[in-house]
Amino acid sequence: MSTILEDLNTKAIERGIPLGVHLDVTWRCNERCVHCYLDHDDQGELTSDEIHDLLQQMADAGVFFLTISGGEPLLRDDLFAIIRRARELTFNVKLKTNAILIREKEAAMIRELGVETVQVSIYSHRPEVHDAITKVKGSLARSLDAIRFLVSQGLKVTMANVVMKQTRWDYPGVQALAAELGAHFTIDPTITPHINGDRSLLRLNIDRNGLREIMNDKTIAGQEDQFDPVAPGAGQGAMDNIPCSAGHSACYVSPYGDVYPCVQFPVPSGNVRQQKFIDIWKYSPQLQEVRSIRSRDLPVCSTCAHVGGCSRCPGLAYMEGNMRGPSTADCEKSFAKTGIPSANMLRRQ
Amino acid sequence: MSEKYIKPSRDIAARMLADEMVIMTVKDSRVFSLNATASAIWSAADGSTPLREIVARKVVREFDVEPEVAYQDALELVEELAQAGILLLADHPIGTEGA
């Protein structure tokens, strides 16, 4: 991250500005990914007018980074009108999509509208593996065609690879494919529980050996914080740390107007159909509680050797039953990077 | 002396955050941060108001500086921003092409 952006995030946290919002415009989807954490039935999505009003409210509140996602956002007929309005309000727009509805015309429109980055999920370089995960035959070929269209428009494309049991050995293939197509590559070895709390999806997580290999892969290390090779020690400053930007300088809005600290941290904090976005952001008791938590307040993690450098996700901890508790997936990552068991792992032995 | 007109480029994202304007280019993600004076000029850059008038209204009055000094500083600033590709600068009013 550039120094200006780091400073910006620090200032946003100090001044209570919601710098980034992840807005899911629909949960409907044209794929049925085996690991997906969302329900796909439409339960009354925000209308175009409601979203346009919300965009204005978010701009007034200081939101700068806007991630438009889903579900599959291109299933909304008004998606390009939403993006156009967002760009008129000078948001930095990132679009997350499976891209199977993007052909030359849509790619040109996305470029014309000034989307900064398009992120496309690619699970494997092998069609039989990718298509088995999405449950849509031909989906890999279509997504890759779309990436070619997008790159040819001069757009920045990120190929996002979720590693799970079925794709355990495939990330180097996806990485090579990204390089070949001129796309950036990002990897996530964490499967998220279903947003309704069902944890059965976690059976898809790769085993400890696989995680160790990925977390120590030098071609990935440094790409994201969670892959940083060396964990800072647990100095006094570490106890004052906040876990991440969720609720501090960023939040999530669902297609139904529900506001959460993060898509992965589904604490209902208000609904934009009932309250102004800024009022939810400033005064929601749930967001205020999330903001109040420092590392020193975490009963288990504050005693852990990894407290200074762990990528602990408070949302995953919340999904485990306690937003002040450990996130087992991140304990495993810290262990995979260092070989040192976390306080949570020692407690369970 | 010809008038100068300014308007933000279309290919940027921008937001006034606290006391500074933060600007990011869409194409290559370069980030700029403008101080209070530059932010005031940027915010008034509508393509139709002459730069000299913007400076008189937004800088001279609000920051209590000499008009000619303020204008020359502003001209230098907008030329730099135009060179960076984030601001359109012309000798005539700028229409929708930069909007």
What's the arrangement of secondary structure elements?
The complex is a heterodimer of chains A (349) and B (99).
Chain A: H1 3-15, E1 20-24, H2 48-61, E2 65-69, H3 79-88, E3 92-97, H4 104-113, E4 117-121, H5 127-134, H6 139-152, E5 156-162, H7 171-181, E6 184-188, H8 208-215, E7 250-253, E8 259-260, H9 277-283, H10 285-292, H11 314-319, H12 328-338, H13 343-348
Parallel strand pairs in A: 1-2, 1-7, 2-3, 3-4, 4-5, 5-6
Antiparallel strand pairs in A: 7-8
Helix pairs in contact in A: 2-3, 8-12
Chain B: E1 5-8, E2 12-17, E3 20-25, E4 31-34, H1 36-43, H2 51-63, H3 67-83, E5 87-90
Antiparallel strand pairs in B: 1-5, 2-3, 3-4
Helix pairs in contact in B: 2-3
Quick gist of this model?
Chain A has 349 residues and is of the alpha/beta class. Chain A has helices at residues 3-15, 48-61, 79-88, 104-113, 127-134, 139-152, 171-181, 208-215, 277-283, 285-292, 314-319, 328-338, 343-348, and strands spanning 20-24, 65-69, 92-97, 117-121, 156-162, 184-188, 250-253, 259-260. In chain B, helix 2 (51-63) packs across helix 3 (67-83).
Report on the architecture of this protein.
The complex is a heterodimer of chains A (about 350) and B (about 100). Chain A has about 350 residues and is an alpha/beta fold. Chain A is about 35% helix and about 10% strand. Chain A is built from 13 helices and 8 strands. Chain A has helices at about 5-15, 50-60, 80-90, 105-115, 125-135, 140-150, 170-180, 210-215, 275-285, 285-290, 315-320, 330-340, 345-349, and strands at about 20-25, 65-70, 90-95, 115-120, 155-160, 185-190, 250-255, 260. Chain A has an 8-stranded mixed sheet, with helices on one face. In chain A, about 45% of the residues are buried. Chain B is of the alpha+beta class and about 100 residues long. Chain B has one domain (about 5-90): Arc Repressor Mutant, subunit A (Orthogonal Bundle), CATH 1.10.10. In chain B, about 40% of the residues lie in helices and about 25% in strands. Chain B is built from 3 helices and 5 strands. Chain B has helices at about 35-45, 50-65, 65-85, and strands spanning about 5-10, 10-15, 20-25, 30-35, 85-90. Chain B has a 3-stranded antiparallel sheet with strand order 2-3-4. In chain B, α2 crosses α3 (about 65-85). Chain B is globular, with a radius of gyration of 13 Å. In chain B, about 35% of the residues are buried. The interface of A and B includes residues 7, 17, 63 and 91 of A.
